[in-house]
Write a structure and sequence with these properties.
1 helix, 92 residues, Archaeosine Trna-guanine Transglycosylase, Chain: A, domain 4, 5 strands, 46% strand
Length: 92
């Protein structure tokens, strides 16, 4: 199913468990698997927020573009998507 969106990139802020965030920060996990309750699309921007934030430390963030979408695939729960990420910026 193809959905047409012309010049309508969205930005999504997502809390990300600190263990998974650390793997994304290091580059070992260049993807996200999420419930598609925000209508994600290729080209959208994800702001991954490290959660929970350790006390007295600035919250790290990763800004990434969705470069690939895996939908309705055997092995993914219904309503979930796999998203390939292209990291644009790491923010301390």
């Amino acid at each position: 199913m193809t959905r047409l969106r012309i010049n309508m990139k969205k930005e999504h802020e997502l809390k990300t468990d600190y263990l998974f965030f650390a793997a994304a920060w290091s580059g070992d996990k260049p993807f996200e698997i999420r419930k598609n309750d925000r209508d994600f699309h290729t080209g959208d921007i994800l702001i991954l927020l490290e959660y929970p934030t350790p006390k007295n430390y600035a919250q790290r963030k990763i800004k990434a573009e969705i470069s690939f979408m895996l939908v309705e695939f055997d092995g993914l729960c219904e309503g979930y998507v796999g998203m390939g990420l292209k990291v644009l910026q790491r923010i301390c």
